[in-house]
Design a protein that fits this description.
Elements lengths: L1 H17 L4 E4 L5 E4 L1 H7 L3 H4 L11 H14 L1 E9 L5 E11 L5 E10 L1 H71 L5 H31 L8 E4 H10 L2 H6 L3 E6 L6 E4 L1 H17 L5 E11 L3 E10 L6 H4 L13 H5 L5 H11 L3 E7 L3 E12 L21 E5 L3 H14 L2 E5 L2 H10 L4 E5 L7 H10 L7 E5 L7 H6 L4 E4 L4 H12 L6 H11 L6 H7 L3 H27 L3 H11 L1 H5 L4 H16 L4 H32 L1
C-alpha cells in the first residue's frame, strides 16, 4: 500500500512538472501549498520561500488576484482570467483555476495554472499595429490615388487647353497667312518690275517659312497628344514616290546637284498604308538633304527587305554628299529643336523639329529609323516600314495636272465666312476658269444648293451659324446629294480625314491653299469619267470604304459559311447597339452608354473598320466614364452612328455577294 502511494505521488509530481506554465496549489485561505519548477523560474523565488506565502502578492494587481482567488472557491473554477506576474519581465498570463476535494466532498484547495500569453499578446499587438498601419497605408494610398486622379485630370485639362490653344492659334495664324501667300502668288503672275518681283518673292519666301514653322509645331503637338492618326488605304508605291521626287527636281537643278533614283521592282504594285505620312517623312529627309548639300548627288533608294503572304517590309533611304553630322550629334539629332551645330539655324534656317517628327512618324507605324554620317562627306538617313499586301486596286490618285484653262463649265460653291479667304478663292477659281458662288456659312450653302446645281463644294469647317461638318451631314442625309465636297481648313490639329469621311466629305485641303493642289483635287474628282451623276456615285463609293475584311478572311480561313455567320451576327447586334448608344446619350445614362460602347469596340478590328473610328469609340467610352456631356461626345456619337450604318450596308452587300457565289 505504501509503495502504491509513493507511485501515485510520483505520478502526480510528474504531471505537475510536465506543465511549462506556472502551476501551483493554494489553500482556501490563499496560501501557496505547492508549485512546479516553472513557477519557481518565473517568480525567481525558491520553493521553500514560496510555500505558505499569499499567492496574490506575486501579481502586479494583488486586488484582482484576490478577487479571482475568491471566484475559484465560490464557483469551483475560473477560466482565462488575465493577470500579470510580478517578475523581471512582467509576464502576462491567463489565470485558470479549479478546486479539488477530499473523499467526502470537502474543498481542500485549488489547483491554478497561469498560462503564459506573452508571445500571444505580442503577436496580437503586432497584428493590431499592422492593421493600423494597413489602414493608414490604405488611407495614404487612397489619398495618393485621389491626388493622382486630380493630377491626371489637371494634366488632361492642360493637354486639352494646350490643344485648344494650338487649334485656335493655328486657325488665327493660318487665316491671314492664307491671304498673304495666296494674294502674293496672284500678284506675282501680273506685270511687275524687277524690284517689285524681288520684294514679292521675299514676302512669299517668308510666308512659306512661317507655314513650315507652324506645321512643324502643330505636327509635334499632335504627336505629343497621341492624336497622330494613320490611314490604311491602297496606293501605288512607285507612282507615289515618283510624284513626290518630281517636286524637288527644280530645286535640285538650281543647286547643280544630281538626283539618283533607285527603286526595287520586286515591290508589289499596290500596298496598304498611309501615303500622306510616307510623303511627309521622305519630304522632310529630302528637304534636309537638298538644304545641306551644295555639290554632288542626292540618292533616294526604295528596297524590298522582307516579304511574306500578308506584308512587306520596305527600307527607304535618302543619301547626300552634304556637310554631314558630327558623331556626338547623331545621338540627339532626332530630339526636339536639335540641329547639327549651333550655327545651323543661322546659316541654313529651320526649326530643328523636322527630324523629331520624322522619328515619331516612323516609330508610330511600327518602323525603325537610322542615321549614318561623316563630316564633310555626307549623310544617309534610312528607315524601314511595314505595309500590308492587298489585291485591291489603289484609290483614285490626285495627279499632277498642269493648270488647263480649257477645262471650263465647272460650277463651284465656296462655303467660307472670312472675307479675305472668299476674295482669294474667287481669284483662284476665276484663274482656273471655273464658275463660283460664295456662301458665308453652311445654312446659306444649303439654301443655294436647293435653288441651283453645282459640280463641287469647297467647304470651310469652322463657321458661325452652321459649321462644315453639320452642313455636309445635312447635304448627305437630308438632301441625299452625292456632290463631291472638299474640306477647307486652317485648323490642322483637328482635321482628321476619318472625321471628314464620317460625315461624307471626299477630301480635304489645308490652308494656305496651294493653287495647284486645289486644282488637282477638283479635276481629280470631276474629270474621270465625264461628269455624270452615276460617275460621281461611283467615285464617291470608291473613295469612301469603311470595311476591310482581310482580318476576317484570315480568322475564318476564307470559310464562306463561317464568314457569313459572323457578318450576320454583326448585322443583328449592331443596329440595336446604335439605338441604345443614342438613347443612353440623350438620357445621360452614362453607365449604359459606357457598357454599350464597350460591346461595340471589339467588332471594329474584326470587321476591318479603321482604327480612327475605334479610337473615336474609345473616346466616347472615356467621356462616359467621366460622365461628361460635351459637344465633342455628341459629334462623336453622331459620326459613329453614320459609320456603323455604312458598315452595315457594306457588310450586307458582302453577305449577298458570298451567298450568290455559293449558290
Amino acid at each position: 500500500m505504501k509503495s502504491t502511494k509513493i507511485q501515485q505521488s510520483q505520478y502526480a509530481r510528474s504531471l505537475i512538472e510536465a506543465s511549462l506554465d506556472p502551476l501551483f496549489t493554494i489553500s482556501p485561505e490563499g496560501k501557496i501549498t505547492d508549485m512546479n519548477n516553472a513557477t519557481v523560474k518565473v517568480t525567481g523565488v525558491t520553493r521553500e520561500q514560496l510555500i505558505g506565502t499569499d499567492f496574490f502578492n506575486y501579481f502586479t494587481q494583488p486586488q484582482k488576484a484576490r478577487e479571482v482567488y475568491k471566484q475559484v472557491f465560490e464557483k469551483g473554477f475560473v477560466a482565462d482570467y488575465p493577470l500579470t506576474i510580478r517578475d523581471g519581465e512582467l509576464t502576462d498570463v491567463l489565470f485558470n483555476g479549479s478546486v479539488y476535494k477530499d473523499e467526502n466532498g470537502n474543498v481542500l484547495g485549488a489547483v491554478v495554472v497561469a498560462r503564459d500569453i506573452t508571445e500571444l499578446k505580442r503577436s496580437e499587438k503586432e497584428l493590431i499595429e499592422a492593421k493600423i498601419f494597413a489602414e493608414l497605408a490604405t488611407g495614404i494610398a487612397e489619398e495618393a490615388k485621389i491626388k493622382a486622379e486630380h493630377a491626371a485630370q489637371i494634366a488632361g485639362e492642360a493637354v486639352k487647353t494646350k490643344q485648344q490653344f494650338l487649334s485656335n492659334m493655328s486657325h488665327e495664324i493660318r487665316t491671314p497667312m492664307n491671304a498673304i501667300i495666296g494674294f502674293t502668288k496672284v500678284v506675282l503672275k501680273t506685270e511687275l518690275s524687277a524690284k517689285q518681283k524681288e520684294y514679292l518673292l521675299a514676302i512669299k519666301m517668308s510666308g512659306d517659312a512661317l507655314i513650315v514653322l507652324i506645321n512643324d509645331i502643330l505636327d509635334l503637338a499632335k504627336v505629343d497628344a497621341g492624336k497622330m492618326t494613320f490611314e490604311q488605304t491602297p496606293f501605288k508605291m512607285a507612282s507615289s514616290i515618283s510624284a513626290m521626287l518630281h517636286l524637288f527636281e527644280t530645286k535640285i537643278l538650281e543647286k547643280n546637284l544630281t538626283l539618283i533614283k533607285e527603286y526595287d521592282e520586286k515591290i508589289p504594285e499596290v500596298l496598304i498604308g498611309d501615303p500622306a505620312r510616307l510623303h511627309q517623312i521622305i519630304l522632310n529627309l529630302l528637304s534636309n538633304a537638298v538644304k545641306f548639300t551644295n555639290k554632288g548627288t542626292i540618292t533616294t533608294s526604295v528596297q524590298l527587305i522582307e516579304e511574306d503572304k500578308e506584308q512587306v517590309i520596305i527600307e527607304f533611304a535618302v543619301k547626300d554628299t552634304g556637310i554631314g553630322i558630327s558623331e556626338h550629334k547623331i545621338k540627339t539629332i532626332f530630339e526636339n529643336f536639335q540641329q547639327a551645330t549651333s550655327g545651323t539655324s543661322r546659316l541654313y534656317g529651320g526649326t530643328g523639329l523636322g527630324l523629331a517628327i520624322v522619328k515619331q512618324l516612323v516609330e508610330s507605324q511600327g518602323g525603325t529609323i537610322n542615321l549614318e554620317s561623316t563630316i564633310d562627306e555626307g549623310s544617309t538617313f534610312s528607315f524601314k516600314l511595314p505595309f500590308q499586301k492587298t489585291n485591291a486596286e489603289a484609290e483614285i490618285e490626285v495627279g499632277t495636272e498642269e493648270l488647263n484653262t480649257e477645262i471650263k463649265n465647272i460650277k463651284v460653291l465656296v462655303v467660307e465666312d472670312m472675307v479675305l479667304n472668299q476674295l482669294l478663292m474667287k481669284t483662284l477659281l476665276d484663274e482656273f476658269g471655273f464658275e463660283r458662288d460664295i456662301a458665308t456659312n453652311g445654312k446659306i450653302a444649303i439654301e443655294k444648293l436647293q435653288k441651283k446645281s453645282y459640280d463641287i463644294i469647297l467647304m470651310d469647317l469652322q463657321m458661325p451659324e452652321m459649321n462644315g461638318f453639320d452642313a455636309t451631314q445635312y447635304i448627305r442625309n437630308e438632301m441625299n446629294s452625292k456632290i463631291p465636297i472638299i474640306a477647307l481648313t486652317a485648323d490642322v490639329t483637328t482635321v482628321d480625314l476619318a472625321k471628314c469621311k464620317a460625315v461624307g466629305m471626299n477630301d480635304y485641303i489645308a490652308k494656305p491653299v496651294d493653287e495647284r493642289l486645289l486644282y488637282n483635287k477638283i479635276i481629280g474628282l470631276l474629270k474621270k469619267p465625264p461628269l455624270t451623276k452615276e460617275a460621281q456615285d461611283e467615285l464617291i463609293n470608291k473613295k469612301i470604304k469603311y470595311i476591310d475584311l482581310a482580318y476576317l478572311d484570315r480568322r475564318t480561313k476564307s470559310n464562306s459559311n463561317l464568314k457569313m455567320e459572323m457578318i450576320t451576327a454583326y448585322l443583328e447586334q449592331t443596329p440595336p447597339l446604335i439605338s441604345l448608344m443614342k438613347e443612353s446619350l440623350d438620357n445621360k445614362d452614362w453607365s449604359s452608354l459606357k457598357a454599350t460602347i464597350h460591346k461595340m469596340i471589339p467588332s471594329f478590328s474584326i470587321m476591318g473598320i479603321s482604327t480612327d473610328f475605334e479610337n473615336m469609340a474609345k473616346k466616347i467610352h472615356e467621356y462616359a466614364s467621366l460622365q461628361q456631356q460635351t459637344e465633342e461626345i455628341n459629334e462623336f456619337v453622331m459620326q459613329l452612328e453614320h459609320v456603323c450604318s455604312e458598315v452595315c450596308n457594306e457588310l450586307q452587300e458582302e453577305f449577298n455577294r458570298i451567298k450568290m457565289s455559293n449558290s
